[in-house]
Amino acid sequence: MEDQQHAERPAPDARRPASRRPRAPRSAHPVPDAPTPRATAPRGVRRAVLLAAACLVLALLPGAPTAAADGTTSGTSARTATGGLRAAAGGCRLTRKLVPRCPGGVLTGAYVHPHGHETWNAAVKRFERQSGGRLGVVHFYSRGDSLFPSRGQRHALNRGAGRRLLFANWKPDDGYTWRQVANGAADARLRAEARYLKKHWDRPMFLTVHHEPEDEVVATSGSGYQARDYRAMYRHVEDVFDEVGADQVVWVMNYMGFQGWVQKAWFKNLYPGNAYVDWIAYDPYMAADLGGYDPGGLQGLINRHWGTDWRGFYRWARRHHASKPLMLAEWGIGERPGHAGWKGRFMRRLARQLAQAPALDAMIYFDSPVAAVAGDVTIDTTASALKGFRRLRASRVLSKVVPSFG
User: Fold this and answer.
1) Residue 234: inside a domain, yes or no?
2) More confident position, 53 or 194
3) How far is it, in rounded angstroms, from Cα 269 to Cα 239?
4) Residue 363 in domain
5) Contacts of 343 (CB under 8 A, 6+ apart)
6) Which of 4, 7, 124, 214 is 20–30 Å from 314 (CA)?
7) Which H or E run contains 152?
8) Domain range holding 133?
């Protein structure tokens, strides 16, 4: 039975809790530390167990997304020794860090904002029906002491024959500064969540710690919100999870991707270090209040920039973190006023252009009518937009990467 509790539905803007200070504009035209020591043993243990657990993550279904929408597979399915994941014969597989092995394959997913009193389960079902394919990943947001995934979220992730990957986005610092979390003030909260995951989530998952931190940095010494404070917090959260044995987590460093922040002297101090980061992610949008509409299609989305000093986040990530898989943890497209059909055409163009970004391994859409600043970026703003998204979803780059758990 579906969970009807109001706690299972997000606030009107679950993605954007109130910041401690005004947000900077993500516009194409701008308006003018010592780390926490790391225990090495838990990391090694976590990686070993994760490797075993990720043997579950064998397979991704090939073929048309409508064929995978109900979780069915073509070919011969094989259950792993641990009984977790099915693999279709000849299908695209995932690495232990959930990276598609097949050349050009992109793992696709979404955050789906419920309509009215929809449960998470109903929202995911609706989105999959509209988009023409089963989601590989479902993105959820949490903060503070709220344990995740909740019962309603688990129902949505496990709905039907094909279970989905969890991407959890957590702000564990709710009520604390980043430095306080790094120094152990929230350890009871961290341990409670790690134990909860051990009990309630038995397969690999993505987790990011306080997404888009660069938008909330307070560079003043002692603020508790310096870039190095974020880095120390991220590391501490991961260390605590290691100690508890929450070994199924694949760790995601989720930036905003706004040029104005990347060019700050402190920006590099946010990065927790290669030993702590499995994926690099960022959140590009195209909307009237987020820099307008770039005619460049895919490149305009993933490499939004101005001037020549910096050439976009995708290029930056490939230069500075070439060894890490790259994800659009959020992306969304708004309608272009006065240009009927533009959004649908943009989506269809993306379907043809994805091969131009071979380092892009995952795209997680932000399906919400109330995205902060971006506004309505749902896939069905118009019939043309929905048709374009369905075309994108049916492209071979996306449709051949659909994980299926047994």
Assistant:
1) yes
2) 194
3) 19
4) yes
5) 333, 334, 335, 336, 381, 382, 384, 385, 388
6) 124
7) helix 151-157
8) 6-12+43-59+106-393
Phi first, then psi: give them for residue 74, nearest 5 degrees: -100, 155
β-pairing verdict for 360-367 and 326-333: parallel
89 pLDDT more than 50: no
Report DSSP letters for 287-305, one per residue.
Answer: BTTTTB--TTTHHHHHT--
Question: What CATH number did the domain enclosing 203 receive?
Answer: 3.20.20.80
Q: Taking the model in full, what pTM does it have? A: 0.80
Summarize the confidence of residues 219-246 as an average pLDDT: 98
> What pLDDT is attached to residue 384?
97
Residue 252 in domain? yes
DSSP letter at 279 equals E
Distance in angstroms (rounded) separating the CA atoms of residues 101 and 104 = 9
Mean pLDDT is lowest, of 65-74, 146-155, 161-170, 193-202, for: 65-74
Per-residue pLDDT at 305: 85
Please report, as a single letter, which amino acid is at residue 158.
N
